[in-house]
Amino acid sequence: MVKFYESSFNYEYPFPAVSLAYFLRYPNPYAKHVLSTDVIDRRFDSDSQRLYTTRLHLKRSKLPPAVLKLLPKGILGSNSDTGQSYILEKSIVDVKEGWMTTETRNLEWTGILSVVEKQAYRRPVQETPLKQPSGETSDTRHWGTTEVTTSTTFVSRFGQGGSRTARRKAEANLCTSDAAGDKADDLPPKRGLLSSWSTSSLQRTIEAIGMRRTREALLKSKDGMNVVLGRLRAGGLVEVLEGMRRDREAMYGPESPWKRSWKTGRGIEDDE
Q1: Given this model, what pLDDT does residue 185 score?
Q2: How far is the C-alpha of 170 from the C-alpha of 164, rounded, in Å?
Q3: Residues of the chain with pLDDT under 50
């Protein structure tokens, strides 16, 4: 089973600022679940004038109960309400031509749900070139905005392979999770008894949950980018770094949600 989700929007900032903000977007007030970011490869191709970067993000989020019941118990540790997962990010930046492409994918739980998000950032092109006082035409690109197109693919391979007993147990867990308080739009309409839940219906359920959470995450991701872009406009790189310091203090300081979570033994709310 495969689902797709696409969206497009503009940042009211020039491409150089947006591409820089992309690499400085963590931490921010809308991404408190991001624990760390590491650059594992970066190279510049002098022939094409393009920058290639591969990064690894460690994230924590509150998982939907319907999906949580399908995960191996050992993956989540002692706190069953939260989980950690690695996200692989690859990007290509062409500053000269004014575009950037990114691809992110989850490395954990891919047998249950694989999510691949591709984004394209580009300076918009005018239909009519601008005329300079000298009579020459200027570059045909707007420099004040950046177009972003997002395409996300969801693939659930749950039930493909493995024992019939394990699939039946997972189907029963998913059905009973509705009685535990899942949101109505997380689960498709029941067709009858537990036996009516087929592998394909489980796959559709998992993909629908992933799509709903992705829509919410994209909105918060845009808000977080706008915070970083606002800091760049207000005080340049110095203000961005200062903002990152404040965000880290808010996340890991004495009164941070992580400290409260550790003291109470409860998970924190998902922020993206």
Answers
A1: 47
A2: 10
A3: 75, 78-81, 127-130, 137-142, 163, 165-166, 174, 177-185, 189-196, 269-272
3-state DSSP assignment of residue 267? coil
Can you give the three-state secondary structure of 173-191, one letter per residue? HHHHHHHCCCCHHHCCCCC
Nearest to 18 by CA among 142, 135, 147, 129: 147
Cα–Cα dist 96/94, whole Å: 6
The strand pairing partners of 119, in sequence order, are 102, 150
User: Rounded distance, CA 102 to CA 54, Å?
Assistant: 10
- Could you give the C-alpha distances from 61 to 56, 142, 235, in angstroms and in order? 16, 38, 31
Q: Could you tell me the CA-to-CA distances from 145 to 19, 24, 63, 134, 153 in Å, in that order?
A: 12, 19, 35, 26, 27
Rounded CA separation 262/151 (Å)? 36
Cut 0.90: pTM above it: no
DSSP assignment of 131-176 equals BPTTS-B--SB-SS-EEEEEEEEEE--TTSSS-HHHHHHHHHHHHH
**List of residues 6+ apart from 131 with CB closer than 8 A:** 137, 138
pLDDT of residue 213: 83
CA–CA gap between residue 205 and residue 200 (Å, rounded): 9
In what order do the strands lie in the sheet containing 146-155? 2-11, 146-155, 114-122, 99-106, 82-94, 50-62, 34-45
Q: Pairing mode, if any, of strands 2-11 and 146-155?
A: antiparallel
* Structure confidence by residue, pLDDT tens digits, 89-105: 999 999 889 999 999 99
